[in-house]
From TrEMBL:
GO terms for molecular function: SNAP receptor activity. It comes from Emiliania huxleyi (strain CCMP1516). The lineage of its organism: Eukaryota, Haptista, Haptophyta, Prymnesiophyceae, Isochrysidales. This is Longin domain-containing protein. It is found in: Endoplasmic reticulum membrane; Golgi apparatus membrane. It holds the Pfam family Longin.
Length: 89
């Protein structure tokens, strides 16, 4: 990934996260050029990954499922008092 692509991907990820709301789909894939953003939006937390467009969605969501289970298992009680990261303010 070139530097320009990396910066553009970061901006796109930030935009995706900022636009999430309670009515957003719980799971979604957003295609962007040669890449795809996959996310799971659950309990007020967004789990997001970026993969090549050819990468199987099933594997991307399997990874995100594992990530969200581990994260929520450890931090579920802390979510209500957490603040948004600076990246998405």
């Amino acid at each position: 990934m070139r530097v320009a692509e990396k910066g553009n991907s970061r901006a796109q990820a930030k935009k995706i996260v900022k636009q999430l709301s309670a009515t957003s789909p719980a799971r979604m894939t957003i295609e962007s050029g040669q890449n795809s953003f996959h996310y799971i939006h659950l309990e007020g937390v967004c789990f997001l990954c970026l993969a090549e467009r050819s990468y199987p969605k099933r594997l991307a969501f399997s990874y995100l499922d594992d990530l969200q289970k581990e994260f929520l298992g450890k931090f579920r009680d802390e979510i209500p008092s957490a603040s948004r990261p600076r990246l998405v303010r």
